Amino acid sequence: MALTARPSASAPDISIYDRRESQVRSYSRSMPRQFNRAEGVWLHDGNGGRYLDFLSGCSSLNYGHNHPELKQVLIDYISSDGITHGLDMHTDAKAEFLGALEDVILRPRGLDYRAMFTGPTGTNAVEAAIKLARKVTGRELILAFTNGFHGMTLGALACTGNAGKRGGAGIPLSHVSHEAFDGYYGPDVDTAALLEQRLSDPSSGLDAPAAILVETVQGEGGLNAASPEWLRKIAAIAKKHGALMIVDDIQAGCGRTGNFFSFEGMGFTPDIVTMAKSLSGMGLPFALTLIRPELDVWSPGEHNGTFRGNNHAFVTATKAIRHFWADEAFKSDIARRGALLEKRLDRMAKEHGLSTRGRGMMRGIDVGSGEIASTITSACFDKGLIIETSGAHDEIVKVLAPLTIEDSVLESGLDILEHAIRAALSPAYGVAA
Amino acid sequence: MALTARPSASAPDISIYDRRESQVRSYSRSMPRQFNRAEGVWLHDGNGGRYLDFLSGCSSLNYGHNHPELKQVLIDYISSDGITHGLDMHTDAKAEFLGALEDVILRPRGLDYRAMFTGPTGTNAVEAAIKLARKVTGRELILAFTNGFHGMTLGALACTGNAGKRGGAGIPLSHVSHEAFDGYYGPDVDTAALLEQRLSDPSSGLDAPAAILVETVQGEGGLNAASPEWLRKIAAIAKKHGALMIVDDIQAGCGRTGNFFSFEGMGFTPDIVTMAKSLSGMGLPFALTLIRPELDVWSPGEHNGTFRGNNHAFVTATKAIRHFWADEAFKSDIARRGALLEKRLDRMAKEHGLSTRGRGMMRGIDVGSGEIASTITSACFDKGLIIETSGAHDEIVKVLAPLTIEDSVLESGLDILEHAIRAALSPAYGVAA
Amino acid sequence: MALTARPSASAPDISIYDRRESQVRSYSRSMPRQFNRAEGVWLHDGNGGRYLDFLSGCSSLNYGHNHPELKQVLIDYISSDGITHGLDMHTDAKAEFLGALEDVILRPRGLDYRAMFTGPTGTNAVEAAIKLARKVTGRELILAFTNGFHGMTLGALACTGNAGKRGGAGIPLSHVSHEAFDGYYGPDVDTAALLEQRLSDPSSGLDAPAAILVETVQGEGGLNAASPEWLRKIAAIAKKHGALMIVDDIQAGCGRTGNFFSFEGMGFTPDIVTMAKSLSGMGLPFALTLIRPELDVWSPGEHNGTFRGNNHAFVTATKAIRHFWADEAFKSDIARRGALLEKRLDRMAKEHGLSTRGRGMMRGIDVGSGEIASTITSACFDKGLIIETSGAHDEIVKVLAPLTIEDSVLESGLDILEHAIRAALSPAYGVAA
Amino acid sequence: MALTARPSASAPDISIYDRRESQVRSYSRSMPRQFNRAEGVWLHDGNGGRYLDFLSGCSSLNYGHNHPELKQVLIDYISSDGITHGLDMHTDAKAEFLGALEDVILRPRGLDYRAMFTGPTGTNAVEAAIKLARKVTGRELILAFTNGFHGMTLGALACTGNAGKRGGAGIPLSHVSHEAFDGYYGPDVDTAALLEQRLSDPSSGLDAPAAILVETVQGEGGLNAASPEWLRKIAAIAKKHGALMIVDDIQAGCGRTGNFFSFEGMGFTPDIVTMAKSLSGMGLPFALTLIRPELDVWSPGEHNGTFRGNNHAFVTATKAIRHFWADEAFKSDIARRGALLEKRLDRMAKEHGLSTRGRGMMRGIDVGSGEIASTITSACFDKGLIIETSGAHDEIVKVLAPLTIEDSVLESGLDILEHAIRAALSPAYGVAA
């Protein structure tokens, strides 16, 4: 596989979308191509164009597109008439997934969780988590954080910080308070202490919470990475005040920050963990809410959904877990690539007096404004690199390359990015380039 | 393919579920088997058991399990590295789906809708629909109906009638009023008139609604089928009072009641239609919110989701639409099978003084109580027939066979059901049988 | 005291109101006079005008303006430096009020209530009642009724039916469902049965209520009088479903319908009763929430308010109770006057093919539209009669004369009304008159 | 009038309260006396006891009990059959009040407000204010503050910080966010800047507010006095973000902090001001919402209430305004007494290493815990001094003496307090005393 991105020169006919797809579509606007094929880190359009994917389905494709081993088990499964849709019946595919989860993920990490298969979307996993927290505690308030993103259905949307998304609700979003994330008020303000003060004050107006819902690295909110120390404080605050701690690991989990879970090795254990995105390994819809057994107080069917337990996803997820997580090799690869990414982004930041964000293979660079960021990502696209933005003002150019990317390909993509940033921030260079 | 169901004698080891799956699981409790393979109307377990499926994934498998043509296009697509996950980018698979939707479904029916690909679950399609209705109208109240079922995420759950499901929310469910469905107060009360009176009364306490959200046949709520006359009145009321009419066609659509949409030929056009379940044709997670173009006021990305636009589902849905809906043959089959089903259920009802419910291939029989219904469905399962219940008290035994079922196989399943009802309601028979 | 109303010919200078009083003022718009003195049934303006008061402060002046005995005890109390403001401290005035309430009102009626002195407004009494019902039951939903009116603060406003008032909230009003009042759907529909059906149906979408809040006669909502039979059904429904029954007796209580409480002799006992308006006897701000002792689970100060327990009002209320309610004479007067009022309104209704509403001395006539009603009340005002409207469309001309009105004065006021109706509805007559 | 407090030795029979008054009563528990008479700073019980009042009806009696001039105008008014209850009709009493408000209060201060006469309670004035802010802005969120207290009806209660009060709601309190008051996080954290950061961040999760609702000195919340600088920042933040600034001056207004309004001379003008408590001058129920004319967008009657515009209170309020605020004498008295109070409290604080709170004649001392504070106030009561606590833990002993108190009487009351503190905090002294 060559290392060279090769964008198409011209856009295809996309009138069918104008005619029949809702205005709500978004990514297709900044990428006016029609894609037909993908493998590994590459997306292909129908005009011979090839694009290096530094977006990875917003971290849904941590193992790349159509990984051959995952693809094969899925084809085999379909060919043999494996159960495709089985509601929440027992199936071989589910049993094997649960076995892999237990053997490869939970037991070696000393974790004891039960899996709740929610509808196969991240937002559904979050809805289930906050429902359960409310049921367990008998309280209604969820504490979420500034710049947090948790989904678009009403319960999850109330936990999301973004005003544009929130405005879509059409009703006031209630029962959630947004607290300041780690570092939100600058390095000198311990936002955990601010929260603790109000929770301990019976006259603060902050009601006792059912749960604290947190991302360890805020994917949509600007790649803000919380420190382990702050997260431990938050876990301790939750425990002290009788609230559950929910880690939303939908974007940061499945290896993106270096381990299967983003909170590993930090010295605390969440009560509930939500997963989705890269969980199936192949980009299939799949979501999971992990629950400490003593909190699993659901009645049968109290939360359900037609597509809970996507059997195709069980098959690929099982393979992904056993293939990538049975030994230390993949973690070691991520660590090396993450360090490479960090080094390159730091260099770009230093060159232009910018700052970087993130952790592991989930990193970005703050280019100062959404306009500049958009200039940069457009220039990248024109060179065949798919890369997107994040943050309150879309001012963070984020790199979410597949974790399986070859180091050299990662470098070549970062070269494109480096040039685009230079062109955007050093106009003279831009003209010359 | 033989006509005989052949249940397994013994249950498999399911300890992994006790250990690792949440208590929330439900169907697996009444079907203590582990399934591994399915084709057409048959589910197979690992012990040689074969089960006739009158549940069809709650109407998600209208074309049966693993339909060979759908299966083949999916295998071909995967084999050729077709895009699996593409956020909402343009893909060949999406363009083809939109084309099929336009050519085969919308244009011949004189319908003009735009497709919004929400997260691939019914509840997400409903959340998007009510968000949009609130945005378009600037109002907050949704009118839903007694016994309505619309999903488990907070916005959709507020529209759902079932107290057990609602109780799981952990917070008061607001911004929705549940009105009496057609026939709810008996045949002599025109519930549309009751609604109209309160909406026209500025002192009724019923706020002006953003939308009226209705199922034409209530799948989970007891297979109550609204009359076309009543639905036309509801559509007229919505129009008169500036509200949108949303038909939730998630369970009743895709042919279940005889046509692609359940509201066809009734003399009104919904403003918004939600679809999911059988839309992919193969049971893959997929959902769609159809919107009249003039109501498509979304901002880009205002509602989104990682798995919106499941490309595998685009492929199978396109094939399903072109295969089943390009001519009248399939509709004719459904009509014949629906009539057969009606006749057989009427006979059972008459024998025991019971009543039937439903329309098309979405019918059931009210056996009087959830206990009796459970006795019946258990007896069916023991004979190799998977059949489930519906209704406020689970008192309706519902038949949701694949629409593709051979007439003779349908009859053989109904034979099992007929015997089980007789055994449950005529104890002497039961002993003798 | 003469019987003749004597309106002023011209309006006074009211520029100070334009300059310094909010646009929210309402009654002063239809009565462009400035009043300075009042006694019994008469209001006086500064220009020598005298107005017969058929509004009575919306039933806050059941014993007329400045009743001499009430006036005297208040002057004596103030003169002797009686406690004016004492928060909820024990005071002689409060002890005497509680004694009178116990001796004259509760004990003879076999009622056992505790008095909660809320802030001195009806809305506050309602807020306290629904708070307590929610606390006692652990539920959130209040069932109120079409055309109900319970106050303007957010909790009470949510229970109020009027769209104009509700619109002022600026936020969605939640946690309340408005059910159809007695007769709302016509004489043939038993609205209690409709409610019972939905409450007994676990899939109706109507959550289990904390309380049913009802007026026996809807003062603002059109003088709709519930039948004793219907109210007994509602009381039975509340009991069956574990909800409290709250009678809002703010407008209908204190003799307005013939007895001290409007629900006397109907065969049920409310769990909570709210009172205000005429409770002080003299129009002073005063409100009371009566609670069955076993439901009095308040913590000290859990609901409070600076002006709870208005001591001036204790003094006049004590006198009013002992003066009017110690024997049967007053009740007998109300019965006679109510019959007279009924007879006269029936005659007017018959003359014009209209219908009447109400009970006791709380009656009105439906003149068909708010425009006609406004024409009538304006004409009355021009003749020196203050009379107002009620109902969803302000289409009910309501007579809320002081209960102490002389029969002949009542007749003279009704003469004015009769002529005004005739003028409005028989234009020829109007021209001639 | 002697300076000596003279408590009664024994408690009266209070069985009527146990039998007939709700458990919600509070102050009467710590003051087991029955009061019958009051004048100036003194409360009398029926057993010859006399109590110096450092509570003043929680600042409702700033001019003392039954001030002779106020008393006299009220007796004269009642004697002449002045209008007692007139809904919102024009009355002489109202016109005179508006005139005094304009002449003596607004015009000299260069303020332009319209008066909205809400139901005569502080909570109702707050409800009206936040309703109007929501109507004007079309937004729903109110920003209130930690330790804020605004009333007990649902709208105002949602703005109140106290968990015990909030818990009484029985439903989740929504549409309000509690921000950190001035100094809440210690002297080094600028809480206005924290708020500004989140309001300016479109991804903070803090929605755009309709209003910022603030007390300049938090009466119930611990006598925390905001600095003028901080209040100016809050006013600027409100303006910048399109929100109204509402000053709740119910407890701090009417002279308590030195001027008629607590915010005078601070360099900003609130959009809305709420008043109640001492507004009538004599402790009569009375409340007022002052509105900048351009924000007075109410429809007639959109917010109303039976007792809005208490005419007795108009009479006494008019007299109070003209008597106390027509010249500088009273302000000068308050300033002197406030300084005296400050000096004495500082001395007590210094003696025991404690801190003081508040401003003007609204000051207190933090004695470290509610238990100690309760010991102190009980000891004071035994010496004939009525004094109460404030703060999240009731740890602040607060002095709310009538503003009209003689300096020497103030000193004598403070002597009692000083000894009680010493006894509580220096046990050895306590034994000896």
TrEMBL record, chains A, B, C, D:
Pfam families: Aminotran_3. Pathway: Amine and polyamine biosynthesis; ectoine biosynthesis; L-ectoine from L-aspartate 4-semialdehyde: step 1/3. Keywords: Aminotransferase, Pyridoxal phosphate, Transferase. GO terms for molecular function: diaminobutyrate-2-oxoglutarate transaminase activity. The keyword Electron transport does not apply. It comes from the Bacteria. Signal peptide: none annotated. Its cofactor is pyridoxal 5'-phosphate. Its EC number is 2.6.1.76. Belongs to the class-III pyridoxal-phosphate-dependent aminotransferase family. This is Diaminobutyrate--2-oxoglutarate transaminase. It comes from Novosphingobium rhizovicinum. The gene is ectB.
